[in-house]
Specification:
This protein is α+β, with helices and mostly antiparallel strands. It has helices spanning 8-18, 32-35, 38-42, 44-52, 61-84, 136-141, 147-160, 186-204; strands at residues 87-88, 90-92, 96-98, 101-105, 110-114, 116-119, 126-134, 164-171, 177-183. The strands form 3 sheets. A 5-stranded mixed β-sheet has the order 1-6-7-8-9, with helices on both faces. Strands 2-3 form a two-stranded antiparallel ribbon. A two-stranded antiparallel sheet has the order 4-5. Helix 4 crosses helix 8. The chain is globular. The termini are far apart.
Length: 205
């Protein structure tokens, strides 16, 4: 079959995936995923754009399939942790019991959802959870968490007031795991809030 003559089933799957809007509408808040991106770490103006302007073009069907792999991993791991009794569920008046924990900082305005909060068995130690999938080549080479992911979980830890975190990586090819514990650097978090406050006051007032 020639590449241009895609089977009806494959094209139907692609059309179905593309019917979902994968873009988050700007809402006037800084989001951890934007703050922790390469552009967000390096460029103040990029973070301003994310407050009110779409900064990502629409993705293709293949990218949507890649996103789906990550979503499926999240759901699977969260389900296991809930069954084990170590995942702390969030009680929402509107949504009921949720596995993910929302964060909300009034000012500078930050909003997002962490992948979960864990309670270590037989202890009072809470951890913020961050789940990531990664291709196996990068997985094998990894000796420390990616900076972007450390920044992202740091935002969640600071907003939730939980100063321990766990980043769990799963190889997309072999389902092997690598786990890294993180401790919140309060000085770093304070500097981040100052930076975001400065950006907001400079560009939004």
């Amino acid at each position: 079959m020639a590449a241009r003559d895609q089977h009806w089933l494959l094209s139907s799957i692609d059309q179905h995936l593309m019917s979902f809007d994968s873009q988050r509408a700007p809402d006037g808040y800084f989001h951890p995923s934007a703050i922790s991106s390469n552009a967000g770490i390096e460029c103040d103006r990029y973070l301003v754009y994310t407050l009110y302007i779409h900064v990502r073009s629409r993705v293709d069907a293949r990218t949507m399939r890649i996103f789906s792999v990550g979503d499926d991993m999240h759901n699977r791991i969260q389900r296991w942790l809930e069954e084990m009794g170590v995942l702390v569920l969030h009680e929402s008046p509107d949504m009921g019991r949720q596995r993910e924990h929302p964060i909300h900082v009034p000012f500078p305005p930050i909003r997002g959802n962490s992948d979960g909060v864990l309670l270590k068995p037989n202890s009072k130690q809470f951890y913020v959870l961050e789940l990531k999938t990664i291709n196996h080549m990068a997985f094998k080479a990894m000796i420390a968490p990616k900076k972007n992911h450390s920044v992202q979980i740091g935002v969640y830890m600071g907003a939730l007031g939980i100063y321990r975190g766990i980043i769990l990586y799963e190889s997309k090819d072999t389902q092997e795991y690598k786990l890294y514990e993180e401790n919140l650097d309060l000085e770093w978090y304070g500097e981040l809030l100052q930076r975001l406050t400065g950006i907001y006051e400079k560009y939004m007032n």
